[in-house]
Amino acid sequence: MNNKHSLQMTVVYDNNPSSEKLQADWGFSCFIKGLEKSILFDTGKEGKILLSNMENLGIHPDAIDLVFLSHEHKDHTGGLNALLSKNSKIEVWLPNFFSSIFKNMIKNKGASVREVTSFKKICNGAYTTGIIKGWIKEQSLILNAEKGLILLTGCAHPRIVKIIATVKELLKENIHVALGGFHLAAYDESEINEIIEQFQNSRVKKVGPCHCTGDEARRLFAEEYKEDFIEIGVGKEIRVQ
Ligand SMILES: [Fe+2]
Ligand SMILES: [Fe+2]
After folding, report:
1. What is the distance between the alpha carbons of residues 229 and 151, in angstroms, rounded to a whole number?
2. Residue 43 contacts residue 105 (beta carbons within 8 Å)
3. CB neighbours of 151 closer than 8 A, spacing ≥ 6?
4. What is the pLDDT, as a whole number, of residue 1?
């Protein structure tokens, strides 16, 4: 793929604490700078917390061109309403199965809705996987950095291993960083180790499991990935060439 980018990602919402001036709360949101458009991936659960964390991190609502929503769970979509009250010029990319109540809320704010079904370019350097089927359907975000692909997942409900396989199938390139909720809290140690092995077999270079990944899975990923494990918490900044 052409158009490789140097990216800066800032976690603005996560249940894992990292900085005293920021509020940790159940949910996930990450701000991405360095592409043609500035993207907010998911919006956390509470608008108040999202906006106050953004303010403390120096991210103005006007700096966001586009919001990408992984799935319609409150801990990923709850902050959108408050954000659109501050900036209604935002384009909101969401899977087409979102409720009409939610889509209408966006339109009533004066913002635009982009409904996703399948793999698509969002702007230079950013792609949606399209809807990935599972017990709860979800879309994931793919960014094209110079070092390789960056994968952002919300809760990874369709299963993280399936999402990784989908990305590799779609873009035929290795994943440099996989970051977000991996949803492994219900898995036992041997199951998690098997999943980590699949990550390594798929040549996922670095991992930043957070949000709903589960503490045990985070610990096992840290043990296995060593210096390639990124400890994520609210306020964490990740730069990728
Ligand atoms: Fe979640
Ligand atoms: Fe979820």
Report:
1. 15
2. no
3. 140, 141, 142, 163, 164, 167, 175, 177, 178, 179, 180
4. 47
Calculate how far, in angstroms, residue 139's C-alpha sits from the geometric centre of ligand 1. Answer: 13
pTM, full prediction? 0.97
Q: What's the pLDDT tens digit per position in 189-226?
A: 999 999 999 999 999 999 999 999 999 999 999 999 99
Q: Where are the domains of the chain?
A: 7-232
Q: Which residues of 130-157 are buried (b: 16+ CB within 10 A; e: fewer)?
A: ebbeeeebbbbbbbbbeebbbbbbbbbb
> How many whole angstroms from 13 Cα to the centroid of ligand 2?
14
What are the phi and psi torsion angles at 52 (to 5°)?
A: -70, -40
Q: Ligand 1 mean position to 21 CA, how many Å?
A: 23
Euclidean distance between CA atoms 150 and 40, whole angstroms: 15
Taking the C-alpha atoms of residue 201 and residue 199, their distance in angstroms, rounded to an integer, is 6
Amino acid identity, residue 5?
Answer: H
C-alpha 163 – ligand 2 centre gap (Å): 14
- Distance from C-alpha of 211 to C-alpha of 28, rounded to nearest angstrom: 6
Which residue, among 233, 167, 157, 235, has the nearest Cα to 199 in the 3D structure?
167
Q: Which of 62, 16, 57 is nearest to 215 (CA)?
A: 16
User: Could you give the residue ranges of the DSSP H alpha helices within 145-188?
Assistant: 160-171
CATH class of the domain defined by 7-232: alpha beta
Q: What is the pLDDT of residues 173-187, one digit of tens each?
A: 999 999 999 999 999
